[in-house]
Structure prediction request, 331 residues.
Amino acid sequence: MELPVLSPFTPAVINEDPLDLMDEIDALKKEQDAAILAHFYVGGELQDIADFTGDSLKLARDATRITNSTIVFCGVHFMGESAKILSPEKTVLMPDLQAGCSLAESCPADRLAAYQAELRAQGHDFQTVAYINTSAAVKSLCDWIVTSGNAREIIDRVPADKEILFVPDQHLGRYLSSVTGRPMILWPGSCMVHEVFSIQDLMRAKRNHPGSLVMAHPECPANILEIADVIGGTEKMRKYVASIPERKTFLVATEANMIHPLMKIAPQHEYIPVPGIMTSTGETCACNQCPHMARNTLQKVRDCLKNRSPEIVWQPYFAQAQDVLKRSLLQ
Ligand code: SF4
Prediction:
């Protein structure tokens, strides 16, 4: 057997013992006065060492309440930005600054500004409502920010005589338009994870698990939402499963790591990720895992604490994004 040739310039990947890493992280947290925030879509081992877990809304609020001077945000870039914008006095570190979001990237600030100008030139009188999965530069161009947890409440705050431009998730926008009765101009963005759920896989899973309930995130396309028994963001999913004492089988149409907090809060149920284990051949697939969230690892958490880097640095346009974020999430 031929052995691979290692270049002296290629660092070898060393798999460190997770328990040692956790001990190191604990010690560094104390030394650096740091708190770890982890989104429900990062790996379970990171959720377990976190001081706070939650969806984007809860974590943004947690970031403003904690007294630690440093935050390590295990999530994706726009989440770290939101934490910094709402808590500018704190140091916000991220395990990997490359952890982006396909949805946020589908709506660049310059294209949004051009589209808003075009709509105004056509005589549209509108307010722009952005899903939190957007860059800070995009947030600074918007009137409101919503998460899947507060969207209905915020849409009700848009004056009735204004049109709504909803960015960037067309599926969430369509769903919100149907539940609020407000027509919306939709930006054609979508999440690479929620977009791939296949209706055939879901129907097959329902047939194979009679009596099961389908829980779907509103970022899923309309054909998935049409057959879902429960539609909601991650916090709503947790509350729902915890409210049912008898054992049920849930088919979960969102990022696969969401199974971890569901198991923790309501271990009496069976959870099956969609479509992970239900392709026509019976093979497993990892297409329901977010590659950006997967960039967060124990090793990188340890390293960012040790090096105090990478850090989310305040940018001039954060000030305008701060106004809209505070108005939407904290008031
Ligand atoms: S799951 Fe989708 S919306 Fe969430 S961070 Fe990943 S790409 Fe973005």
Remarks:
- The pocket of iron/sulfur cluster is lined by residues 41, 76, 101-103, 133, 191-193, 255, 290, 292-293 (CB under 6 Å).
- The chain has three domains: 18-99+293-314, 104-190, 194-273.
- Residues 217 and 232 are 5 Å apart (CA to CA).
